[in-house]
Amino acid sequence: MWGLLLVFLVIFPGRTGAAGADDGSNAPAVASPGDGSPESSGKAPSPPDKKKRAKKKKSSSGQPSGAPFPVGQAPAKKKKKPPQVETLVTNTGILVPQGKLLVENTLEYIHNTATQVALQGFTVLPAILIGTINVESVEQDIYMDVLTFYYGITNNLEAEVDVPYVYRTEGVLSYPINGGSGSLLQTGTSGNGLGDIEFGLHEQLNHSGFGGAYFLANVIGKANNGTNPFSIPINSQTGLLTAQPTGSGFWSIEPSLTAIYPSDPVVFYANAAYIYNFSANFGGNIGTINPGNATDLSFGAGFSLNDKASFDVGYDQMTLWPPTQNGVQIPLTQVLQLGSLVFGYSYNVSRYFFYLLNVEVGVTPDAPNIQISFRVPLYF
Length: 380
Hints:
Mean pLDDT is 75; it is low at 1-69, 77-92 and 116-133. The radius of gyration is 40 Å and the shape is globular. The N and C termini lie far apart (101 Å). The chain has a single domain (101-379), classed as monomeric porin ompg (Porin, Beta Barrel). The protein has helices at 2-11, 13-20, 38-41, 48-61, and strands at 101-112, 118-119, 122-123, 135-154, 157-174, 185-194, 198-204, 214-222, 252-263, 266-277, 280-281, 288-290, 294-304, 309-320, 324-325, 328-329, 336-350, 353-362, 370-379. A hairpin with a 2-residue loop joins β4 and β5 (157-174). By secondary structure, the chain is mostly beta strands.
């Protein structure tokens, strides 16, 4: 009997294990296609310890049976949408926010070889001497460091103050004022000091409408605190100044209107201004001088290259009307046309720090040959 029982166990070992197992590991209650059960696959059942390890392995992965990617393989990363490029208009706000201060430092260089030069409404050569000196060549180099403060009074109103420090040199080839041998004289002068301080207000007129365009109303006032050309002694031989002025000697006011139209990734802009220069009485033989009023029109477009860099190109046209002395136009003076092509580049290092590089190239005889400015704004 014992022999028959031993033979039975040897021939049918699985059935005895199935009948005697109380954990049900080898006998699934429901057989479904593809579940790996012996009944559905026709394969021999695996040992209980292997199935337990397999279950632990599946449960440790934390992935359901219907996972969209294989177990042990990381899901494909979703492509992030590139950040929106910031333009001049952010959240329909153009000016410095209320209570915020923007400090901007601008390094500017101007080179000019014209015989008559007009910059921002003042005459570089003394107006009373124009026509009495035969100037063959004039070369000027002007270096300025301008500290500008912008403060947000409200979200729609901004105040501005510009404090420039000026260093300038001038070289002139001219004939003597009193004739003489007729040989050319070469003179070189320089001057440095605080320039004319400017102050102004900017108001954003709208936040919507007008076909998506935004408008700014601006008014800039310029003082006469810089060294004016009429207070500098004149060289009796050449009739030229013995030093270079750092200011114009005149007060002025400049109202303007700015239009900005964003069309991602391009921002179109235009500005129209009128510069009114107040007359000043310098006494003596000079009398009352008015350097002439001016109109200024500029327009262009800024292009976003990526989320940090942008490039802009534009054109600026200033028309300066002839100066007068004691109400009479000074002889041999005429309307000056100052036209310049403007190229600019800006780069955002961070949210609160960026820099801008502008280059202006004169395209009319009266305009400065080249003007380069490097601006570094900082928020506080």
